[in-house]
Design goal:
Layout lengths: L7 E3 L13 E3 H14 L25 H18 L3 E11 L2 E13 L5 E8 L3
Antiparallel strand pairs: 1-2, 3-4, 4-5
InterPro entries: IraD/Gp25-like
Organism: Candidatus Entotheonella gemina
Protein name: Baseplate protein
């Protein structure tokens, strides 16, 4: 199946390939990396695009509770709807990491609009 319409962009984080060229991410991997970039960026970090990112960073010092998990899930869903037009967000859940009490795991279930392929991504978040 030809997935070129899903896009090709610079690999995140920025890296060089074996030939010294900028490493590229393509297709579903490009979308996965885009989601991670959105969640890793706090609004205001990008000078030329100050609205870009996810508001979960405002919650870093909140108590790790069910209320914080709900606020995190809501912020993630809002950011992905705003900044990643290639997907439909199916569900976002945030829950404590059983092995690390100060971590939340954010599980994002999404569907690529153009192929109807479904994917899950788990993103670690560290509220205090």
């Amino acid at each position: 199946m030809d997935n070129h319409f899903l896009g090709i962009g610079w690999h995140f984080p920025l890296a060089l390939d074996d030939d010294g060229q900028v490493k590229m991410a393509s297709h579903e991997e490009s979308i996965r990396q885009s989601i991670r970039m959105i969640l890793s960026t706090s609004p205001g970090e990008r000078t030329m695009h100050p609205d870009f990112g996810c508001d979960i960073h405002d919650l870093v010092f909140d108590v790790n509770s069910a209320a914080t998990a709900g606020a995190v899930a809501s912020a993630v869903e809002d950011a992905l709807i705003e900044w990643e037009p290639r997907i439909d967000v199916l569900a976002v859940n945030a829950f404590p990491d059983p092995e690390r009490p100060n971590y939340l795991l954010i599980e994002v279930s999404y569907q690529v609009r153009s192929t109807n392929s479904r994917f899950n991504l788990v993103y670690p978040f560290y509220p205090e």
